[in-house]
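Handout, section 3.2

Students often ask what a structure token actually looks like in practice. Rather than define it abstractly, here is a full record for Adenine phosphoribosyltransferase. The first block is the sequence as you would receive it.
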Amino acid sequence: MSEERLRRVRDRVRPFPDFPEPGVLFRDISPLLKDPVAFRTLIDLLEDHVRASFPKIDFIAGLDSRGFLIGPPLAQRLGIGFVPVRKKGKLPGPTESISYSLEYGKAELEIQSDAVEPGQKVVIVDDLLATGGTMCAACELLKRLKAEILECLVIIELKALKGSEKLNSIPFYSLLQYD
Ligand code: PRP
Ligand code: ADE
Ligand code: MG
């Protein structure tokens, strides 16, 4: 049953060789977003996983920009709020920021300093984990705010890049894995 639902999601992830640069096999989730049945199935699967794993969560934090496609619908399903972790220069007021590198470049992420209270329980979501640079940076920002990170959650994990090892002891979950 769950296998069938996972297959429905997997069938809507499209590989593009050599994007955005030579040597990168880009996993494109656009077909997943375009298919309402597959997208609903995706949110169903994530909701089931999170409900089964954590009795209480305060917020879903999502990573700019593809994490914004999944985080808010998942937070709505769970009846909780969403906190954006944005690329540099987009958030008003006091922020925490951090530079990081990812599979094909470098960037800087920010969170508003009052986004969560110390001790609040957060699940961080993104579409994909490659080297883990982006997710690690987001964890660091939430740690600075003294949030309790329950889990880092992604749709797609690129196993060969060993990004989950970078997360050390922070729990990690991926729906789909690719070598
Ligand atoms: C992509 C993807 C993840 C990140 C994963 O984001 O959405 O956030 O790369 O790579 P890593 O594990 O090596 O850090 P990207 O910065 O390309 O931008 P986008 O989400 O705005 O499309
Ligand atoms: N982000 C980092 N690496 C990626 C990949 N191979 N496909 C899609 N998004 C990515
Ligand atoms: Mg991203």
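Discussion prompt for tutorial groups: The radius of gyration is 16 Å. How would you have guessed this from the sequence alone?
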